[in-house]
Predict the structure.
Amino acid sequence: MAENVTLARPYAEAAFKVALAGNALASWAEALAAMTAVAADPDMQACADNPHLLPKDLAELFVKILGGSISSEQQNFLRILVDNDRLAVLPDVCSLFGDLKNAHEGTKEATIFSAFPLDAATLNNLVVDLERRFACKIEATVEVDPELIGGVRIAVGDQVIDASVRGKLAAMSVALQN
């Protein structure tokens, strides 16, 4: 939802500035992912929606669930989100933070959809080719999609490279119909 992204952007930028100043981008990315996972839990959502639970108590519960995995700065960030009733935007904060982190590090995330599991050598060659094409470091994740029949479909940001058999058959079908 666009308004959630709008609400999340200042929090993500603030977290990024603090993480960058403390040379802790990876730690913050992990902490935000953990916070997002906890906030997505149905029991935690029920607690967040409980009007009898004070924000201070909700933040303490959140910190206890996360254990010692988050720093005091990250705990303060979490308290600010809770105090401002912004737990619902945590997934967007995490995503925007990841985008800022990747832009700072000169990396892009790529999702490779393959008809079959890719071996390490094939994946490595594909990543090298993508890094050359996009002139940046690529962090790839692979998802198996048997409906592709063969080949791969690659999504890097808003760009999609469809080298799948299914994609080629669809293109041929359109060409034949015209």
Notes: The CA atoms of residues 112 and 154 lie 5 Å apart.
